[in-house]
Amino acid sequence: MKTVSRGEPMDATVLRELRAIVGADHVRHADGDVAAYARDATPLFSARPGAVVHPGSTEEVSAVLKLAGARSVPVVPRGAGSNLCAATVPLSGGIVLVLTRLDRILEISADELLAVCQPGVTTAELSGAVAAHGLLYAPDPGSRTVATIGGTIATCAGGLRGLKYGVTRNYVLGLQAVLATGEVVRTGGRLWKDVAGYDLTRLLTGSEGTLGVITEATVALTPAPEASGTGLAYFATLADAGRAVARIIGSGLLPATLEFLDARCIDAVESYARLGLRTDAGALLLFGDDGDASPVGRHLARMAELCLVEGALDATVAGAAAESEALLAARRCALPALSRLGSVTILEDASVPRPRIAEMVDRIDAIAGRHDLTIATFGHAGDGNLHPTCIVDAGDTDATERAHHAFGDIFRTAMELGGTITGEHGVGAAKLPYLTERLGAGQMALLRRIKAAFDPAGILNPGKLGS
Amino acid sequence: MNGFTPELLDRCISCGFCLPACPTYALTKDETSSPRGRITLMRALEEGTLPGNDLRLQEESSFCLGCRACETVCPAGVQYGALLEEWRDRQWQGTRRPLIVWLLMSAVNSPWRVRLLGLFRRHARTRPSPSGPHLMLGCFERALYPEVSRAARRLHPELAAPAAQGCCGALHAHNGDSARGRQMAAELGERLPGTIVTTSGGCAAHLADVLGRDRVKEISEYSTGEDLPETGARIALQDSCHLRNGLGVWREPRALLERMGEYVELPSAGSCCGAAGSYALVRPRDSARILDAKLDEIEAAGIDYLAVVNPGCHRQLEQGLRRRKSSVRVVHLAELAAGAVRPADR
Fold first, then answer.
1. Which of B20, B49, B75 has its CB closest to that of A333?
2. Cα–Cα dist B343/B232, whole Å
3. Average pLDDT of A89-104?
4. Chain A residues with CB-CB distance to B10 below 8 A
5. Are A337 and B76 in contact (CB < 8 Å)?
6. Sequence-ordered list of residues with C-beta below 8 angstroms from that of B78, at least 6 positions apart, any chain
7. Cα-flanking dihedrals φ and ψ of residue B293, to 5°?
8. For labelling, which of A149, A245, B24, B76 has a CA lying 20 to 30 Å from the CA of A452?
9. Interchain CB contact of A26 with B (< 8 Å)
10. According to the model, what pLDDT value does residue A272 have?
11. Which UniProt keywords apply (chain A) (predicted)?
12. Final residue in a domain of this structure, among A223, A248, A265
């Protein structure tokens, strides 16, 4: 746990030059003006920046980075600050560079199946705008209404459609980014096939603001499916639900959505959303598909049937589209809803090969017991991506300490089962201590060499990836 | 000076789901002007990492509209409205309270002053009833829109409307004196036994908070089985923020309007018009920025009437549309329902 209450005050000359670049209204440095930027959606990490800068163009971003490089001032790029790995907490102070003013969708092309937008557009705004053209932007993180496109690319956000559609990296065709030196680069472009050079687009995707600042993105779209639907199955235990997942995928179906909640999560979500979920079940599986109406209906019915074969207490297909949307919306709220059980929710993001899900869930339960903690688990069953969430009371430092030990155990267990320490939330400051265990010393050194090539002065998001 | 209630402040886990619901975040795209950012500021105040006289703390406690739209999208169940009251209780003391707010609060601080406001206005008035139901006349509503209470009584003749009832105290509660605000609501509850029916969504939410949900009925909740006039007009609605976000009442006024004409749902019907109690007087420029987009929408909708369920919205929209020389008429829902709006008025 790292807590820094006050950042270093920003040098007066630097402030003056920043104001000359972006305008006085868009540079803030007083304590009260920067306090809200000390944290993002990650609990237990907080550090105030020296200044908060809201640039209005790529040129301004470039000028800010040149200045920061010359003065060795750290720069932490930030979208809406909804990430869950403390990626945007300015651990070394400096400038938080907020991209929310760059909020225009520049182009939607139905012919080319792509959209070009600025980084501050939210995922939901982009999805809504392309939907009006009969198109789909597939990445669908739980925070879609909040999270910006720039932020979701920088963290390679996943979401509820991962199994069938993949994650953010599968949809980024090209980027415009400003490197730490102020150089503006364009990577990739508008082409699905383009192997000219190293794939810098993919390298920047998921780089968490450590290699460059994304100032424009070209993303791939697909035609919007004609129909989509969801269904619900309840099980006595998560292990039963895990077997149903294996059976569904083994049957040749590729569901668009396959999400699960354990009993604690069902309770919490129900107390927020009041959908009439069964709170006596041990696990809930939310399954969904999209495509042409007739196969979607068939697939959903088949999934419900397979759940019953695996001993589901009950399995039903949602009637109306509104009902499906309500179920998905409720699932997206699982994490914040869990905070009804305690004021600090420490969420993790371990991912295991799909067949090991049930085993992983059992091991998490055992770890929770061993450390005397309340851990609720939800996640993306189709991707093997679990979100064990530890709920503790604010100020209970002993429980917080135990939670950190428990998560160490959980990460190691995930790796032992062939999994990873983070499936979709990112490394940030929160998981950096575990990264060497995952990647090994050799690969860590390679990461640092890549970082140095992009950011020789080490000013971009220090203390995170590649540091 | 009281601190924040720890349970209220601890509830927020900073997920940020509130950002897109916040009108001031939409204006600024600045975390500091979002509900999550403001809660971070409240925590800094509570922990002493920001001093109470910090200019930004002062500014944000005032810039917030207090519309509570964030509460409806908060999966964690943060009671932001209650936190804002506690924040202003701490920060809006003495000379830090805007002068205009101080004047308004003084004007409604006792029943005789409230009576004075309506002295020469033809608002409804009857003897008190020993068991209710009573019509709340409001403080400023009785002076600004006396026709609303008359319409409410035409619709519901059983409602008693004594002039000596005082103010519900919402103004105090939202402007740094929540203790007095609660006391005023409790006193009004004693003066008006039985069910209290109000034509003001904002008052309804505050009264319900103090007196209990069962005692209070907003007029569109109370009006269900009446014969309603068919106006033949196109009608839209501006929700009252606290009625919608605080009490969850938004279907009811729509159901009534649908029976009276062709109901048109404005895309931003549920979001704040910028009146926000005394906000339009304290921060006229920000209030106008919030209002402007809504006025564009109203003018584009081709409607005859814009129905309101709160006097603050009534005044804000009426003035805004008048400035634009719009032909859309702003009327209280009760006036439409009571047939008080003549076709010639259209």
1. B75
2. 9
3. 97
4. 343, 393-394
5. yes
6. B8, B11, B12, B18, B35, B39, B70, B71
7. -60, -35
8. A149
9. no
10. 84
11. FAD, Flavoprotein, Oxidoreductase
12. A223
Residues with Cβ within 8 Å of B181's Cβ and at least 6 positions away in sequence, in order, are B85, B169, B170, B171, B172, B173, B174, B206
Q: Is residue A388 domain-resident?
A: yes
- Same domain flag for A205 and A247: no
Mean pLDDT of chain A: 93
ipTM, two decimals:
0.93
Low-confidence ranges of chain B (pLDDT < 50): 344-346
Q: Does B11 touch chain A (CB under 8 A)?
A: yes
- Say what the pLDDT of residue A4 is: 42
The answer to whether A272 contacts chain B (CB < 8 Å) is yes
Structural domains in chain B, CATH included, are 6-94 (1.10.1060.10), 100-222 (no CATH), 234-339 (3.40.50)
Interchain CB distance below 8 Å, A35 and B44: yes
Tell me the pLDDT band of A100, cut-offs 50, 70 and 90.
very high
Structural domain of A269: 227-335
pLDDT band at A5, cuts 50/70/90?
A: very low
A35 near B CB under 8 A: yes
Give me the pLDDT at residue B330, please: 97
Nearest to B20 among A146, A272, A393 (CB): A146
Q: Give A303's pLDDT tier (boundaries 50, 70, 90).
A: very high
User: Of all helices (H) and strands (E), which one includes residue B315?
Assistant: helix B311-323
**Optimal mutation site among A31, A148, A275, A393, interface B, most CBs of chain B within 10 A:** A31
DSSP-based helix, strand, coil % in chain A, nearest 5: 40, 20, 40
Which of A13-17, A264-268, A443-447 shows the lowest mean pLDDT across its residues?
A264-268
Q: Which residue of B has its CA nearest to A84?
A: B15
Paired strand residues for A248: none
